[in-house]
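Priority: medium. Attachment 1 of 2:
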């Protein structure tokens, strides 16, 4: 559970970014400086690559379900493509959030107490995304079951799953972007070893 109540305007569904008071380090280390900064270590680069993978894979899954709904792919090749990727996406994103909540966020909050509210917002996001992932799992399972059903049921399930994935991707993109805006500048300021994560 989140340690504090998050105001509605800062919820994942409502916000357009983090409040300015949490982005002072981002002003010092804007995104265009990140790739070549000496303090962007191997762990941070790996973490950012995982974020890119989650964004890309969610979009690919939504596109595959849309293709099925538009009858541009047959059921058998769709199942072979979709099922393992959906399973991988759900498992990896859940594991990623557990590691952040259990290890990285506490280390970052201890290192920079002024960002505590930002990490509480991100933890709240994880709770919302977890519930959304449960719905995605159900939608994906229903879609795979519907592949053996009649044509109309298959199309309806494909459209519903594509819609769920697209909506999830919107929230996921917001969360990942805000998480990066909070964490990467802190890493660039202190270094991975200075934060106890290197």
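Attachment 2 of 2:
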């Amino acid at each position: 559970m989140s340690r504090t109540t998050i105001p509605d305007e800062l919820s994942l569904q409502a916000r357009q970014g983090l409040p300015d008071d949490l982005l002072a380090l981002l002003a010092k280390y804007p995104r265009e400086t990140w790739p070549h900064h000496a303090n962007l270590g191997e762990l941070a680069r790996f973490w950012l690559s995982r974020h890119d993978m989650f964004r890309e894979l969610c979009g690919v899954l939504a596109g595959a379900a849309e293709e099925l709904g538009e009858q541009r792919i047959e059921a058998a090749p769709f199942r072979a493509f979709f099922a393992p990727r959906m399973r991988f996406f759900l498992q990896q994103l859940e594991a990623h959030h557990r590691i952040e909540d259990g290890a990285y966020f506490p280390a970052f909050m201890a290192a920079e107490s002024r960002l505590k509210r930002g990490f509480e917002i991100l933890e709240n996001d994880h709770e919302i995304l977890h519930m959304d992932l449960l719905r995605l799992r159900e939608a994906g399972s229903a879609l795979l079951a519907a592949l053996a059903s009649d044509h109309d049921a298959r199309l309806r399930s494909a459209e519903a799953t594509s819609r769920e994935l697209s909506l999830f991707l919107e929230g996921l993109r917001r969360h990942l972007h805000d998480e990066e805006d909070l964490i990467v500048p802190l890493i660039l300021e202190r270094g991975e070893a200075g934060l106890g994560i290197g």
